[in-house]
Amino acid sequence: MIKTLVSLDAFAPDAELARFAAARGENSGAAVSFVGYCRGTSAHGPVTQLELEHYPGFTEAEIERITLDVAGKHNVADVLVIHRAGAIEAGAPIVLVAALSSHRAAAFAAVEEIMDYLKTDAPFWKREVGPAGARWIEPTSEDQCRREEHNG
Amino acid sequence: MIKTLVSLDAFAPDAELARFAAARGENSGAAVSFVGYCRGTSAHGPVTQLELEHYPGFTEAEIERITLDVAGKHNVADVLVIHRAGAIEAGAPIVLVAALSSHRAAAFAAVEEIMDYLKTDAPFWKREVGPAGARWIEPTSEDQCRREEHNG
Amino acid sequence: MTRLLFFGRLRDVAGCSERLVDLPSNIGTVAELRAWIGEGDPNLGAALETRGVHVAVDQVICNRATEAVRGAGEIAFMPPLSGG
Amino acid sequence: MTRLLFFGRLRDVAGCSERLVDLPSNIGTVAELRAWIGEGDPNLGAALETRGVHVAVDQVICNRATEAVRGAGEIAFMPPLSGG
Q1: Structural domain count, chain A
Q2: Which CATH number covers residue B45?
Q3: Which ranges of A28-133 would DSSP assign to H, the alpha helix?
Q4: Residue C51 and residue C80: Cα distance in Å, rounded?
Q5: Which end of chain A is more exposed for a tag (fewer CB within 10 A), N or C?
């Protein structure tokens, strides 16, 4: 089962992961998961909160589309993606990606590719809030070049 | 913290993972985990139980040595490895490997490398038990060649 | 009526995340829409011209300035995606 | 006294996972030990000669047949590792 979700509320990765793994088929021998947490510092100093804006409807559809693509490519039947939006406190989970598969290489590849996408190309706009104020984070020109290569 | 354990008793990957992630430092933004479950079928037919024999003392020392190596190589501070030994029912967890890191690429690489080691080169002797009886599983000659290349 | 949506720093420049407008009948393309917005709000107009700003018409990305906006229910202006 | 340990299918061949033995004083190397075991149990002796069987002396892998076993407390015979 492919399930993707953008959540404005905090979520508990452990509980979500336990529920996801509990539904595994008897030949799903490999479960890979990634959890990303909001870090307390960035290149620009301390971070107390991250604000992730998304485009309701569009962001969900893009994440689902990419997830289905990646799952199909690696023949992974079960993928769970939960991504926070809204205001996220330092230390809180931002993203959970998990995959169940009969082969571990496929599960690793699927989770890594979905994460690569989510970290750079997913429709989110990110603002870091720290003691010195708030700033929008936009991709570096390096990210930009890499992305244009991919699309080119 | 590097923690490695060979357990003769069943373990709960969710609870272990939750405990491991709860102790993360504020800059450990990335948590990668792998859980391997005993599959209900193998190349040789249905499997009701897997028996994993280990060499007490030696197996633990080898797993710890490799884990420290891999963690050092990727500069990953926190790694958890739990590996079952003894009789394992189909569907039960066999292995949990988790890593916390500030960068997801390092965490993925560490977990994948430790798993590659555990799946092929760790000191376990594996016996599959099914309706047709029990059989020792030894590496294929392909595995054998690959291993000798590594060591060569 | 058409909803114009502004994300990320474009929202700050627009001063709102959403405007409900009646598109004049002579506004047919993305380029014409940007120019029309710029007439009423030059800062926002300039921000919308910035490299990397994408436009989605009814949730479909339109990468050419000549793409049609007539009849659209929702047009979104998106700065470079930052990822999650 | 020296503990001889047999793992995996070698345990089945030996009929036990462990034997406590008094090594004769003329048994100095891995090769001599294997031959001595084979005198008492030819099946087991042949199994220990199989390609891929490793020997660990006091938990240290000894890959050469000429390595010393004299004075060892624990000598393990390990078939090819199957991994977890």
Answers
A1: 1
A2: 3.90.1170.40
A3: 58-74, 104-120
A4: 8
A5: C
ipTM of the complex: 0.90
Q: What is the pLDDT of residues A11-25, one digit of tens each?
A: 999 999 999 999 888
For the CA atoms of A3, A66, B35, A13, the dihedral, rounded to the nearest 10 degrees, stands at -50
The pTM of the full predicted model, rounded to 2 decimals, is: 0.91
What pLDDT tens digit does each residue of chain D (84 aa) get? 999 999 999 999 999 999 999 999 999 999 999 999 999 999 999 999 998 899 999 999 997 888 899 889 999 999 998 877
Nearest C-alpha in C relative to A55: C7
List phi, psi (to 5°) of D10: -65, -30
Is C84 in the A-facing interface, judged by CB distances under 8 Å?
yes
Q: Is residue A151 a contact partner of residue C54, using CB atoms and an 8 Å limit?
A: no
How does pLDDT run across A73-95, given as a tens digit for each residue?
999 999 999 999 999 999 999 99
Query: Which residues on chain A are in Cβ contact (under 8 Å) with C9?
Result: 125, 136, 138
Q: Residue B28 in contact with residue B102, Cβ under 8 Å?
A: yes
Domain with A41, as residue range(s), is 2-151
H helices of chain D, where? 9-14, 30-40, 42-48
CA atoms within 13 A on the CB side of A132: 8
**D touches which chains (3+ CB pairs under 8 A)?**
B
CB atoms within 10 A of CB B53: 19
Q: Do A30 and B28 touch (CB under 8 A)?
A: no
Residue in A90, A100, A84 with CA at minimum distance from that of residue A42: A90
| Partner residue facing A14 (CB), from B18, B27, B104 | B18
Distance CA B40, CA A61 (A): 36
CB atoms closer than 10 angstroms to residue A62: 22
pLDDT digits (tens, 9 = 90+) for C1-47: 999 999 999 999 999 999 999 999 999 999 999 999 999 999 999 99
Q: Are B148 and D52 in contact (CB under 8 A)?
A: no
CATH code of C2-78, in short, is: 3.10.20.30
What crossing angle do the helices spanning A13-22 and B13-22 adopt, rounded to 10°?
160
Contact A122 C83 (CB under 8 A): yes
Closest-CA distance, A52 to chain C, in angstroms, reads 7
Strand partners, C78: C54
CB C74 within 8 A of CB A55: no
| A/D touch flag: 3 or more CB pairs below 8 Å | no
Q: Which of B14, B30, B90 sits opposite A18 (nearest CB)?
A: B14
